[in-house]
C-alpha cells in the first residue's frame, strides 16, 4: 500500500509518500514541505497547496491519503487555515477517487512513539529510526507528514477489520430485526 501523509498548514504543509512492506516495515519514497508566504491572499495560498498536492498525487499515485485531523487550538486563525488546507487536499483526493483518512495528533504520536503526548523531537527521532533515514527530516512538518503515513500503514489493517466487523454486526442486526418483524406478523 502506498500512503501519502499530509501535515496540513497554510504556511508550511508537510507532504510524504511511503510504502509498507512486510509486517511493520515501511519505506520512505518522498518527503517535502510546501511553503506559502503569510502575506499572500488566502486563495493564492490554497491554490499553491492544491497545485502541489495534485502534482504529488498524479506523480506518486497513492492508494490512500492520511491527513492530520484538525484539533482545538488557542489560535482560531491557525485552526481555520489548517482546516482549509486539509479540505483542499481531501477534495483533490476525492477527484481522483483516493480514500482519505484523518488521524488525530495523539493517534499519530502513539503509533510512532508509543506515547500519545510525545513532543515533536521524539516524533522526529522515531520517524528517523523507523524509516532508517540518514538524517532527521526537517522541518518538523516533514517529519509529521512521514509520521502520519506510518501511522496509517500500521493502523489500516485494524481499521479495516473494525469496519468489516461493524458491517457484519449491522447485517446480523438487520436480519434479526427482520425475523422479529416476521414472527410478530
TrEMBL record:
It comes from the Bacteria. Mg(2+) 2 binds at residue 68. Binds 2 Mg(2+) ion per subunit. Mg(2+) 1 binds at residues 7, 141. InterPro entries: RNaseH-like_sf, RNaseH_sf, X-over_junc_endoDNase_Mg_BS, X-over_junc_endoDNase_RuvC. It holds the Pfam family RuvC. GO terms for cellular component: cytoplasm; Holliday junction resolvase complex. It catalyses: Endonucleolytic cleavage at a junction such as a reciprocal single-stranded crossover between two homologous DNA duplexes (Holliday junction). PROSITE patterns: RUVC (PS01321). One of its GO terms (molecular function) is crossover junction DNA endonuclease activity. It is found in: Cytoplasm. Its cofactor is Mg(2+). GO terms for biological process: DNA recombination; DNA repair. The active site is at 7, 68, 141. Keywords: Cytoplasm, DNA damage, DNA recombination, DNA repair, DNA-binding, Endonuclease, Hydrolase, Magnesium, Metal-binding, Nuclease. It is an enzyme of class 3 (hydrolase). The RuvA-RuvB-RuvC complex processes Holliday junction (HJ) DNA during genetic recombination and DNA repair. Endonuclease that resolves HJ intermediates. Cleaves cruciform DNA by making single-stranded nicks across the HJ at symmetrical positions within the homologous arms, yielding a 5'-phosphate and a 3'-hydroxyl group; requires a central core of homology in the junction. The consensus cleavage sequence is 5'-(A/T)TT(C/G)-3'. Cleavage occurs on the 3'-side of the TT dinucleotide at the point of strand exchange. Belongs to the RuvC family. Homodimer which binds Holliday junction (HJ) DNA. The HJ becomes 2-fold symmetrical on binding to RuvC with unstacked arms; it has a different conformation from HJ DNA in complex with RuvA. In the full resolvosome a probable DNA-RuvA(4)-RuvB(12)-RuvC(2) complex forms which resolves the HJ. NCBIfam families: ruvC. This is Crossover junction endodeoxyribonuclease RuvC. The gene is ruvC.
Amino acid at each position: 500500500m502506498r500512503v501519502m501523509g499530509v501535515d496540513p498548514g497554510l504556511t508550511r504543509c508537510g507532504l510524504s509518500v511511503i510504502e509498507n512492506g512486510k509486517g511493520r516495515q515501511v519505506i520512505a519514497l518522498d518527503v517535502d514541505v510546501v511553503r506559502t508566504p503569510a502575506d499572500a491572499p488566502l486563495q493564492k495560498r490554497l491554490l499553491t497547496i492544491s497545485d502541489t498536492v495534485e502534482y504529488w498525487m498524479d506523480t506518486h499515485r497513492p492508494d490512500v491519503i492520511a491527513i492530520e485531523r484538525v484539533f482545538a487550538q488557542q489560535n482560531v486563525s491557525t485552526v481555520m487555515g489548517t482546516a482549509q488546507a486539509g479540505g483542499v487536499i481531501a477534495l483533490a483526493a476525492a477527484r481522483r477517487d483516493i480514500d482519505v483518512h484523518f488521524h488525530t495528533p495523539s493517534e499519530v504520536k502513539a503509533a510512532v512513539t508509543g506515547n500519545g503526548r510525545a513532543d515533536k523531537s521524539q516524533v522526529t527521532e522515531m520517524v528517523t529510526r523507523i524509516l532508517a533515514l540518514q538524517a532527521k527530516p526537517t522541518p518538523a512538518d516533514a517529519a509529521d507528514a512521514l509520521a502520519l503515513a506510518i501511522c496509517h500503514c500500521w493502523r489500516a489493517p485494524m481499521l479495516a477489520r473494525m469496519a468489516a466487523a461493524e458491517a457484519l454486526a449491522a447485517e446480523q442486526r438487520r436480519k434479526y430485526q427482520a425475523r422479529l418483524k416476521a414472527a410478530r406478523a
